[in-house]
């Protein structure tokens, strides 16, 4: 992740988790682009949501600024919406 400070231990942890989020997002994109079955889409969206939740958990008890906290919360909320929409469309 470019542009993310890594001076503090929590920043390094967060950078690693956000890298995992980015990877899972790419997996979901490819799953959609390859027109994979609904079960695979559900799994990919669940894994993305899991990684977002882990990223949020990394911030618990740290001195992260409010902007960082809100940004990570927003990513988690968006992942939840993606999972929900895919779940509704898949049945």
Structure overview:
This protein has helices at residues 9-33, 38-58, 66-90. It is elongated, with a radius of gyration of 14 Å. Helix 1 packs antiparallel against helix 2 and helix 2 runs antiparallel to helix 3 (66-90). The model has no long low-confidence stretch (mean pLDDT 91). With 91 residues, it is mainly α. The N and C termini lie far apart (35 Å).
Keyphrases for this structure?
91 residues; mainly alpha
Main sheet attributes: strand count, strand direction, barrel closure: none
The shape is: elongated
Mean pLDDT: 91
**From the alpha-carbon coordinates, what is the Rg to the nearest angstrom?**
14 Å
Number of helices: 3
Low-confidence stretches: none
- How far the N terminus sits from the C terminus, by CA atoms, comes to 35 Å
Secondary-structure-derived class: mainly alpha
Based on DSSP secondary structure assignment, what is the total number of beta strands?
0
- In terms of DSSP E residues, the strand content is under 5%
In helices, the fraction of residues equals: over 70%
N-to-C SSE string, H for helix and E for strand: HHH
Task: Compile the SSE list and pairings.
Blueprint: H1 9-33, H2 38-58, H3 66-90
How do you describe this structure in short?
This protein has 91 residues and is mainly α.
